[in-house]
């Protein structure tokens, strides 16, 4: 960028929650590196929860002083407790109501300084604001190209159906760019009756993701080349020319490197004393709470495996009701002695470490002692493992994680599934066998080799002249052409 010219501002508009603000913060850093000012527009979380509330936003802002954070004037939150509508619908309604506030803010920036508006996958209502103001608008899709390929093709599949996809069970569905996808592995809400309000609204949201001037995807081309190519195929969405796709990832936190003067966590000191690639790391993301019965089963499996482990335990959720995420309460600290088998901590203290609720995941994955990762297959975690060169044992819990599991195990070849995830319970024997397979066997050695290859490809994509850097330059050129 010409440093003598007036700096232009990129406005980022993420949805709420750790899984959306975090990746967009990494995107902001790339814009800063290219010489742009970045303003991230936030809304007050409708619920002050421990995972995704104001505390997280404050930490992000404090850690990134170069990014300007602007919080829109708050609107009254929805009546989650009194409404019969799904919480997701209420939140989307609230996002729509914020359009007027967003428009006022964008109008406060001189048009010649406003470079573009980049919206989160769930903020598609903001497309109307950008169109009205003549501002280039792009989607930032924080999940993978495979997921976007499926979501983009799904409306046409559902359009001709009178009943939901749930009745198809595990019947494989064919989509361009991805392996055959069992119907049961789609996002749960999309399996319902196509006329159901939640299903219809989610479909409309996914469809509008490709109504922008282009989609920035948190992936790199070699990781998902088949899926990326699908978007240029006329058969992807018959009758619609899809916008450009820019693979600009993997955008993930650098861990302690992103935090000045960070003290090393106790688990990293513990890992220092373990042999290289000898530890299995178990963590299910910021919302991954397992039932007590499952925690005990995991403990039995780890103990019987004889392998070293680092395990993050969260207090069991007790309910799958979506409204549980809206409860205004801090997560209680797990009582490990009560949750785990009697004597387990004592018997395994020389080869295992159990952490309560949280770990510095990026730092753990990048530690030389970490040899395998039991994960819920959230896209952030998946990319962090790929960037660290760590093979995965896939244990999806919800959302698009089941699809990610298919991509990791059947297409990308860097993960193995843990049998039982569909039934919601994985036995000790299965966990024991798969942990030993990855850490000890020839098949595990091949998996680790593949993980290292992907790590090198990810690093190359981000270097100058790499595919992700080139995609970013194409994006800047396209915005310039639009403005011209």
Explained architecture:
The chain is α/β, with parallel strands linked by helices. The protein has helices at residues 18-33, 54-63, 87-97, 99-107, 126-133, 145-159, 197-208, 225-230, 266-272, 292-305, 336-339, 344-347, 361-365, 379-388, 401-412, 428-440, 442-462, 467-483, and strands spanning 9-13, 37-42, 68-71, 114-120, 137-141, 172-173, 181-182, 215-217, 245-247, 279-283, 308-313, 352-356, 370-375, 392-394, 415-417. A seven-stranded parallel β-sheet has the order 3-2-1-4-5-8-9, sandwiched between helices. Helix 16 (428-440) packs across helix 17. The two termini are 16 Å apart. The mean pLDDT is 92.
Describe, in short, the structure shown:
With 484 residues, the protein is an alpha/beta fold. The protein is built from 18 helices and 15 strands. 43% of the residues are buried.
